Fold this sequence. Notes:
The protein folds into 2 domains: 23-110, SH3 type barrels; 119-404, Fumarylacetoacetase-like, C-terminal domain (Fumarylacetoacetate hydrolase, domain 2). 18% of the residues lie in helices and 26% in strands. The chain has helices at 47-54, 59-62, 68-73, 75-90, 95-98, 126-136, 215-218, 231-237, 316-325, 352-355, and strands at residues 23-27, 35-40, 43-46, 102-104, 109-110, 119-122, 153-155, 161-163, 168-169, 172-176, 182-186, 190-191, 194-200, 219-226, 229-230, 251-253, 258-259, 267-268, 290-291, 294-299, 302-305, 335-337, 363-364, 370-371, 379-387, 393-404. Strands 6, 7, 8, 13, 14, 16, 17 and 22 form an 8-stranded mixed sheet that branches. The longest helix has 16 residues, at 75-90. The protein is globular. The two termini are 31 Å apart. Bound molecules: calcium ion (CA). Calcium ion binds at residues 121, 193, 195, 227, 337, 339-340.
Amino acid sequence: MSAAPAWPPAPPGHPFGPHTLPYGSFRAEGAEGRRACVAIGDLVLDLTAATAALLPERAPLFADGTLDGLLGAGPAVWAEVRAALTRWLTDARHRPAVEPLLRPAADVTLTLPFTVADYVDFYASEHHATNLGRLFRPDGDPLTPNWKHLPIGYHGRSGTVVVSGTPVARPAGQRRTAGGDLAFGPSERLDIEAEVGFVVGTPSVPGRPVPLADAGRHLFGVCLVNDWSARDIQAWEYVPLGPFLGKAFATSVSPWVVPLAALGHARVAPPPRDPRPLPYLDDTGGEPWGFDIELTVTLNGHTLSRPPFAAMYWTAAQQLAHLTSGGARVRPGDLFASGTVSGPVPGQYGSLIELTRGGAVPLELPGGEARTFLRDGDEVVIGATAPGPDGSRIGLGSVRGRIVPPGTPTGHA
Ligand code: CA
């Protein structure tokens, strides 16, 4: 028998304490359809039911069980809903009304929490771009001439963004064999990319760029991303238009969207930029859009690396300013993946291709196993935390995926 939870219903020091309050969406036995939710400790609060009972004027936002309505509602409503949640989950006077709407997180199935609109994969880590440049273009400069002048990105495939826990079938495609022949078959260089995803809320006005100073009106929160990558397919196809099928078979995201309101203590200045970017990308003296988020990458339970997000060269605010500078608009549910997060040393690399120097130096796993790229059955988990108030840590949850053989039906959770 478990005792009734204290109030707030999270143990002290829990990564999903009352200062985190990440948003998600679940299905569960005994609950009709999908339900929007908020995590508190090891419990989830049914936000669809809670707003219907306690904040009826905002209930329509959550009636479909997703975060879509909230994302598009804008910063004033984001603040209002978060303030209400904070009251409900910290002030014991609300306990009688709120407690019946809590259920153990272990009893629910978390689903993709919002409809992914457009998905852009950026390339914002100077360390990662340099490492990849050396591997893909050994005879040239590691960074392309444009890299320090604009946030490089490409439009990815939103339809294959899947929630954490969805199996990932090994993709097949065209590749060059070691002997130089052309072959079609299962990827032999299946990799991960540990990234942080920024979720757009408020839409922009078509044709009107979003200046750096307005980023906070549009960017709602963050999730964790594993941008699975088939390096052999990618290497053959990416010239001249960039990645295509080598990154279009699955992109996994964590089930929780942590609002930027929870990450105030994690804000840090981005690294110095040299040369100084053009004025529309120059954030000197502005609100800092770096975040001290510490990622952890594990393979079959063994920690491979701890990539530091604070080292990223380009920020989400700059990515938003650049994306909209040419006339493109953003919509609720647009997802900006940061690009692989890598720090300057191998223990901070966010991909296997970097950790194994292009597959030349296998990683040794406990038990004597060696690994260059992923085998069927491998499970990768990317987790993260960030500074919270008073020396605490805010949790970002995790994104998990297991590789299954080619052609295995995976479905979408
Ligand atoms: Ca990527």
